[in-house]
């Protein structure tokens, strides 16, 4: 029995030395020693009897266990309950160390050390951000400078100059708002070129919105974007183009609306000009069309726009329609009689005429009532002339020739209908030829201009007058060729 006790002690000492030599985790060492002691800590199997009254004790006392490196303060119960948990932790740690390969070790080593190239990059990055911060502060101070009477006469006020925080902030905000106006104001003060001379000038200008007036666009998952033409839009544009200078003014960007306008008028015969969102005003998130920049008198200008915000600057010039959502209707065609009558009459200002209608959305119905009233008055006048004409009876003029058979408005409509039919047939036969000639002239004009990047930067883009002069010169060349 003493031999077994001595062998257990030696085994524990050897285990502790081996674990210390091989640098095993303290948890594993502790677990191995406690486990060995728990297994080999032997006691006498003799039971205490009342005869001898002696209690058998182990040879491994506390002093010997302390020399072996064991914690003698732990209870035997703790060493039997905790070895599983401690052993699992030791195994997990050993598995983690086994998973670490050379690549992971080099990666950690690289993260801990920085090369000279990395240090340079970090230094340049810091230098860049500090420079950006300094430049921003310098630009803010520059925008807060005093007003200059020569450079900024429209903003100059002597009492606003000074370098107090309030005045500097006020000047800063004013200049920043001036920069933002570049994106919220039209790029040009005249959106259209000057009108042609009187013999070729239309009496009135009609500005029509594209979206929800002439066309309607919708999107679904199966077919994507689809654009539908309003019923009668081709007839509307073609018929009124003989009376009006038609301008399609879209609130959409040029990138989205230009293709649609080209399909509406492929031969460039009906639509005189097209404008887009880029020349609109933007205020409080609302898109507004300023008709005062159209380079046309407002008393000769009519706009058709269903969006109230777009017509908010000149509502007296606008004919309001309900937004078209792609359904069948005739509201656009129903406006033709009124617009035709307005263009064929000597009207000095269209605004009082539009204001005479109580509800501008019901102009076709109300105009039909007024037209019928005029027709009745005209018929009664003609009957009176036919029956009571002393001079006609004296001269012997028959009653049939004393009055007009048709109302002047009907004569105008018949002439307009014939002109439209002739124009339609002509475009049907010669449309493609006209389109090719126009493309060739455009190429020749661009070749004559010899635009270069240097010219655009130094002289700017050609103005409308320059383009008109070039077109006139090209027309003279064509006339000379025809004569030859």
UniProtKB/TrEMBL annotation:
Keyword Transcription in record: no
Matches recorded under SMART domains: CPDc
Localization (cell): Mitochondrion inner membrane
PROSITE patterns reported in the protein's UniProt record: FCP1
Membrane topology: Single-pass membrane protein
Keywords: Membrane, Mitochondrion, Mitochondrion inner membrane, Protein transport, Transit peptide, Translocation, Transmembrane, Transmembrane helix, Transport
GO BP: protein transport
Major place of residence: mitochondrion
Any GO CC annotation of this UniProt entry: TIM23 mitochondrial import inner membrane translocase complex
One family name in Pfam for this protein: NIF
Origin superkingdom: Eukaryota
Alphabetical list of Gene3D superfamilies matching this protein: HAD superfamily/HAD-like (3.40.50.1000)
CDD domains: HAD_FCP1-like
Start and end residues of each FCP1 homology domain: 199-342
Region listing for Disordered, in residue ranges: 70-116
Listed Basic and acidic residues bias regions: 72-94
Keyword Glycoprotein part of the UniProt annotation: no
Function, as annotated: Essential component of the TIM23 complex, a complex that mediates the translocation of transit peptide-containing proteins across the mitochondrial inner membrane.
PANTHER family per record: DULLARD PROTEIN PHOSPHATASE (PTHR12210)
Record-stated family: Belongs to the TIM50 family.
Name by which UniProt lists this protein: Mitochondrial import inner membrane translocase subunit TIM50
Organism of origin: Brettanomyces naardenensis
